[in-house]
Amino acid sequence: MSETKLHPRTQAVHHGTRRSQYGEMAEAIFLTQGFVYDSAEEAEGRFQQAGPDEFIYARYGNPTSRMFEDRIAALEGTEDAFATASGMAAVNGAMFAMCKPGDHVVAARALFGSCLYVLELLAKFGVEVSYVDGTDLDQWRAAIGPCTKAVFFESVSNPTLEVVDLKAVADLAHAAGATVVVDNVFATPVFSRAVELGADVVIYSATKHIDGGGRALAGVICGTRHFVREVAEPYMKHTGGAISPFHAWIMLNGLQTMDLRVRAQAASSATIAAALQGHPALSRVIYPGLADHPQHAIAMEQMGSGGTMIAIDLHGGKEAAFAALNRMRIVKISNNLGDAKSIATHPATTTHQRLTDEQKAHLGITPGLIRLSVGLEDAGDLIADLHQALG
Ligand SMILES: *Cc1c(COP(=O)(O)O)cnc(C)c1O
């Protein structure tokens, strides 16, 4: 039976495993930066053309990192993947490796602050960057042109959970010959149909749901073998954004339980979002799994789930949001997401502090907005905690 035909739950446990001569059951951590050659001729040959399981230096690749790359590529349905030191190293690597001065990139405006920074950097080096409202297909259609090299967007935006119609945007991009690059963190690899719907390059911050325990930073660029090995890898290996083998090992272990964790977190999120709807302290409960979400139908088609993130907006603005945050006992105030522990974030004063008031207003990042990353605790305990915090 071909390994690639197995179901994701099976692949998440076994795919890509390489065993040493000792036959270890758990994936080994090859905590080595270098590799020994039997002869000078072998070293020369490997530098000319390294075979698929031949390594030179951990900045280029490492057996533990390769196991993680193979496993996530199989789950995502791409030919290959390159593992990076963080999610941002992956975004930076994919975009800088592919663009040159004069190229044009169209991006959704609602982006993680650091992703926005990378696009500003591209503009500084002569790439023309246009921003659109990710949910408005007319704006994508108007912005994409014959010089468009790539489109870039978060399939579900941070923190207001807007869902981009991936297939529709990919069709527009492909008609212009552009590459579709998707930051798929909020969708998670569990609910991803990104490649099937037209994504060419899929990026994850493995720091989030793949680790699932908030322990280590890592990222990954998934794509065709050509894009990963001929475009992204040369850039990554020479600029130093490779993953640590130890972190690759943490992420390999994370992948084994990711499906169970993320499905449980999404089920709790749906329960919590429904329980919070109509609460008198809230002006909005934003969750793609709720029927009143503006892109509910797209979310269900694209992910089959509302995901593990909820945003709530408090009537009383910043003061009310801070008071609620300070009363939360189980839910922790922090800024990670996808963790086993539930986390509440106040985007306006933390992750999105850098934006101007006008930009925040444009993106719906109101003073009363709290972003919730739902963890693995009992959903009833979380609802009770949120209810007492909202007063
Ligand atoms: C966290 C995050 C990133 C960056 O990932 P790091 O691992 O923190 O570098 C990029 N995009 C999105 C949507 C994220 O949530």
From TrEMBL:
Entry GO CC: cytoplasm
EC number: 2.5.1.-
Cited InterPro entries: Cys/Met-Metab_PyrdxlP-dep_enz, O-succ-hSer_sulfhydrylase, PyrdxlP-dep_Trfase, PyrdxlP-dep_Trfase_major, PyrdxlP-dep_Trfase_small
Pfam families registered for this protein in UniProt: Cys_Met_Meta_PP (PF01053)
Cofactors required: pyridoxal 5'-phosphate
UniProt record, GO biological process: 'de novo' L-methionine biosynthetic process; homocysteine biosynthetic process; transsulfuration
This protein's pathway: Amino-acid biosynthesis; L-methionine biosynthesis via de novo pathway; L-homocysteine from O-succinyl-L-homoserine: step 1/1
Keywords: Amino-acid biosynthesis, Methionine biosynthesis, Pyridoxal phosphate, Transferase
Positions where N6-(pyridoxal phosphate)lysine occurs in the chain: K208
Gene Ontology MF, one: transferase activity, transferring alkyl or aryl (other than methyl) groups
Protein family per UniProt: Belongs to the trans-sulfuration enzymes family. MetZ subfamily.
Name listed for the protein in its UniProt record: O-succinylhomoserine sulfhydrylase
Species this protein is from: Paracoccus tibetensis
GN (gene name): metZ
